[in-house]
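This part of the workshop introduces the protein records we will be handling. A record pairs a protein's sequence with a compact description of its fold. Comparing a sequence with its tokens is the quickest way to learn the format. The record below serves as our worked example for the rest of this section:
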Amino acid sequence: MSESQPWLPPEQMPRWVWKATAVFWLGFIVTIVTRSVWRSLSALFILLLVSLFLSLAVEPGVNRLAARGWRRGTATILILVGVFIAFLSFIVAIGTLVGQQIATLLSDSEKYVNRTVNFINDKFDTHIDATQVINSINDPNGPVQRFIRSQQGKVVDLSVTALGVLVKALSVLLFTFYLVADGPKLRRAICSRLRPNRQRRVLSGWELAIDKTGGYIYSRALLAGLSAFFHWVLFQAIGIQAPVAMALWVGLISQFLPVIGTYIAGALPVLVQFVDSPPKALIILIFVILYQQVENYFLLPRVTARTMDLHPAIAFGAAIAGGAVLGAVGAILAIPAAAMAQAVVSNFGERHEVIDSHLTSTQPVRHVSRRERRVATGREDGEP
């Protein structure tokens, strides 16, 4: 350093840089902690969400029983026990049916293979050798036997999974019981922290949620009953095994599992019946497709118009979004959530009368001829 150039101290770093650095690292740490907590408690949050949905669905029934003099706790237990018994009976009936069908298929595999191969050869003009198919199935080193051996070791895992599902179901019922039985106390505790105008908004939103969720359950239960009845008539007419259990499966799964429920519901009776009689399986497949069209165009609009007014496109998009976030549980819960959101949004803002236009008319537009347009505008036929 030369003597003519004095020494200058280095420039100090601005204070906002230290603050920005501290905020960045603090946000990073909070994000990591939040992700860790969510991974640990996500299962609990889902259970609480399902419990909240179930509590909103059963509370109208509990309120009716309470109005007749029942204690809320007793009424809640009665309804929840009924729901649990119905759900457990449905699972046992379907599981028993599928188990019996698998046992029958394994014991009489040669007969079913010959019947299926003959049906395919007759209907599709193929030349499949049933003996080769049977030998391939019975071959110890073949793909079928290897698959069966690989599944035998998963029996314990399946039992553990079933036990876990049962524990989760009991946990949901326990949370639901407290949410419904102590519902008035919970709402009083929440409203005691709010001003009167905010209390009215909270209670109005709560009542709206109960109405929309109850409407969703009612509409789906009604559609499920209709679907189960008509499918039972078909199953009884063509003479398949366990027609009641199969009809309940089709009715419940097709209505309470959005988007893909119809295909899953129809696949089980078709596959089970295909083993015994391929023509009957084809009849079931055709009937499922036709009934779905009748339901979409005639039954569904009339039922949901009185229970849950939700546009089909919104319901479809909500089910896809819910399934992408929380899987099957999210797909089921997304539809009543979308109905509640639509009802809340519809109550805000000012509405005006819509002007007449063919773009906004809900009635079929009649074609107007050139002569009618001339008469309507006051011009004669000879005028340009």
